[in-house]
């Protein structure tokens, strides 16, 4: 594992702590780290008690870096770096509150919207549960699990520097994060296990959210050609979910190698996880765009004033914000992919993934409520009206959509 220049400068702080005897300082380091530090100091112009020189001498840092990389195991490298950073007085970085805030906090907000939606289904006489409600319920249930794991990840060190996490916790974090495409959370082993779990959850949640919106489209738009396109998009989304669940679950062989490979002490092989992540993100954004533009063609053909068309388009396209979040997440994916300090550098990638899931669920529910508002406010279709009464209305603002809450199984507009 490579060490940055600053990191290895810090390693050189071994015997530099003023007024500390060499034996007590040396006890903080693994044997190989101690040997490399002593050797490096001997080859430099720094004395063993000159803390400022040891912590800032780049030539010394380079010597120690090369020595540690060749002679120490990954666990010993991390232990050496942690001890040296402490000896040089480098502040401990901690962004675990962001993981908890966006993971648990964002999930709580989405859950409130979900409860309000389901509650409305039971208090509104004409309301009934549909396939879109089933899909969003599955997504919300998994999001609750994801939020719990986010707190667990933070408690195991995700959001801090990798070398500050005990080795057993790192593995745990990677296991949990493995369930969602790419996040991490009382040992290094524990950390990698958590990461693996989150990876799978993420894929399922964003896919079920998309399917919920598509089911809503089927309940609103009766046009045959449009419904065929919706079913095709739904099939593509299901294929995306199943394909990347399988690919992510078996990204390494044996499977456990996904959360044990970090220490260099286990044997196995892994796919190109970075390429897999970029492919998943690209397809995810493409599906978001397709779902976003699907209803726009029908809306453009309506005999409405352009302002009303714009209003309807904005209401049905509220999910566009999710697409924006997905694109913003790509930048953090790039940083995460090239990182050697994933528990710290992956923080932004983690909370943007949380935001994407939370906003996706919230927008899917807003889209549905917006659709009902369109039907009752803009189209002249209201509950309790007879067909004759509807025909007698001024048709210039008529929106040819079915009434979501009053459709029968034998009328157009039923999803499945």
Automatic annotation (TrEMBL):
<keyword id="KW-0336">GPI-anchor</keyword>
<keyword id="KW-0449">Lipoprotein</keyword>
<keyword id="KW-0732">Signal</keyword>
<keyword id="KW-0325">Glycoprotein</keyword>
<feature type="disulfide bond">
    <location>
        <begin position="55"/>
        <end position="88"/>
    </location>
</feature>
<keyword id="KW-0964">Secreted</keyword>
<feature type="signal peptide">
    <location>
        <begin position="1"/>
        <end position="20"/>
    </location>
</feature>
<dbReference type="InterPro" id="IPR049326">
    <property type="entry name" value="Rhodopsin_dom_fungi"/>
</dbReference>
<feature type="transmembrane region" description="Helical">
    <location>
        <begin position="278"/>
        <end position="298"/>
    </location>
</feature>
<feature type="transmembrane region" description="Helical">
    <location>
        <begin position="310"/>
        <end position="328"/>
    </location>
</feature>
<feature type="disulfide bond">
    <location>
        <begin position="46"/>
        <end position="53"/>
    </location>
</feature>
<dbReference type="GO" id="GO:0005576">
    <property type="term" value="C:extracellular region"/>
</dbReference>
<keyword id="KW-0472">Membrane</keyword>
<keyword id="KW-0408">Iron</keyword>
<feature type="transmembrane region" description="Helical">
    <location>
        <begin position="131"/>
        <end position="151"/>
    </location>
</feature>
<feature type="transmembrane region" description="Helical">
    <location>
        <begin position="228"/>
        <end position="250"/>
    </location>
</feature>
<keyword id="KW-0812">Transmembrane</keyword>
<keyword id="KW-1015">Disulfide bond</keyword>
<keyword id="KW-0349">Heme</keyword>
<feature type="disulfide bond">
    <location>
        <begin position="32"/>
        <end position="72"/>
    </location>
</feature>
<feature type="binding site" description="axial binding residue">
    <location>
        <position position="50"/>
    </location>
    <ligand>
        <name>heme</name>
    </ligand>
</feature>
<feature type="domain" description="CFEM">
    <location>
        <begin position="4"/>
        <end position="115"/>
    </location>
</feature>
<keyword id="KW-0479">Metal-binding</keyword>
<dbReference type="GO" id="GO:0046872">
    <property type="term" value="F:metal ion binding"/>
</dbReference>
<dbReference type="GO" id="GO:0098552">
    <property type="term" value="C:side of membrane"/>
</dbReference>
<comment type="similarity">
    <text>Belongs to the RBT5 family.</text>
</comment>
<feature type="disulfide bond">
    <location>
        <begin position="36"/>
        <end position="67"/>
    </location>
</feature>
<dbReference type="InterPro" id="IPR008427">
    <property type="entry name" value="Extracellular_membr_CFEM_dom"/>
</dbReference>
<keyword id="KW-1133">Transmembrane helix</keyword>
<feature type="transmembrane region" description="Helical">
    <location>
        <begin position="98"/>
        <end position="119"/>
    </location>
</feature>
<dbReference type="Pfam" id="PF05730">
    <property type="entry name" value="CFEM"/>
</dbReference>
<dbReference type="Pfam" id="PF20684">
    <property type="entry name" value="Fung_rhodopsin"/>
</dbReference>
<feature type="transmembrane region" description="Helical">
    <location>
        <begin position="200"/>
        <end position="221"/>
    </location>
</feature>
<protein>
    <recommendedName>
        <fullName>CFEM domain-containing protein</fullName>
    </recommendedName>
</protein>
<dbReference type="InterPro" id="IPR052337">
    <property type="entry name" value="SAT4-like"/>
</dbReference>
<comment type="similarity">
    <text>Belongs to the SAT4 family.</text>
</comment>
């Amino acid at each position: 594992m490579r060490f940055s220049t600053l990191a290895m400068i810090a390693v050189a702080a071994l015997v530099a702590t003023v007024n500390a005897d060499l034996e007590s300082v040396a006890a903080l380091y693994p044997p190989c780290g101690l040997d490399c530090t002593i050797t490096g100091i001997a080859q430099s112009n720094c004395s063993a008690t000159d803390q400022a020189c040891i912590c800032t001498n780049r030539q010394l840092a380079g010597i120690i870096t090369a020595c540690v990389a060749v002679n120490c195991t990954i666990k010993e490298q991390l232990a050496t770096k942690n001890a040296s950073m402490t000896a040089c007085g480098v502040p401990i970085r901690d962004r675990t509150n962001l993981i908890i805030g966006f993971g648990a906090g964002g999930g709580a907000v989405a859950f409130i919207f979900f409860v309000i939606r389901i509650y409305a289904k039971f208090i509104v006489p004409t309301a009934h549960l549909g396939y879109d409600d089933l899909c969003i319920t599955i997504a919300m249930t998994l999001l609750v699990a994801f939020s719990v794991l986010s707190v667990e990840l933070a408690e195991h060190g995700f959001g801090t520097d990798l070398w500050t996490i005990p080795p057993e916790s790192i593995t745990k974090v990677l296991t949990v994060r493995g369930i969602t495409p790419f996040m991490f959370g009382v040992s290094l082993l524990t950390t990698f296990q958590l990461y693996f779990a989150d990876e799978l959850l993420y894929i399922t949640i964003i896919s079920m959210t998309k399917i919920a919106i598509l089911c809503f489209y089927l309940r609103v738009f009766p046009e045959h050609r449009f419904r065929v396109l919706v079913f095709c998009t739904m099939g593509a989304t299901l294929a995306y979910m199943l394909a990347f669940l399988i690919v992510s679950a078996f990204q390494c062989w044996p499977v456990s190698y996904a959360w044990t490979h970090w220490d260099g002490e286990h044997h196995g092989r892994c796919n190109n996880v970075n390429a897999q992540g970029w492919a998943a993100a690209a397809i995810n954004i493409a599906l978001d765009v397709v779902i976003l533009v699907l209803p726009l063609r029908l809306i453009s053909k309506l005999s409405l004033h352009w302002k009303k068309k714009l209003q309807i388009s904005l209401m049905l396209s509220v999910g566009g914000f999710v697409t924006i979040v997905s694109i913003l997440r790509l930048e953090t994916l790039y940083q995460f992919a090239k990182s050697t300090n994933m528990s710290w550098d992956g923080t932004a990638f983690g909370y943007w993934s949380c935001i994407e899931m939370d906003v996706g669920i919230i927008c899917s529910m807003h889209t549905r409520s917006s659709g009902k508002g369109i039907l009752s406010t803009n189209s002249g279709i209201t509950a309790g009206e007879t067909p004759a009464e509807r025909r007698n209305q001024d048709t210039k603002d008529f929106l040819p959509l079915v009434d979501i809450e009053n459709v029968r199984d034998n009328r157009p507009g039923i999803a499945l």
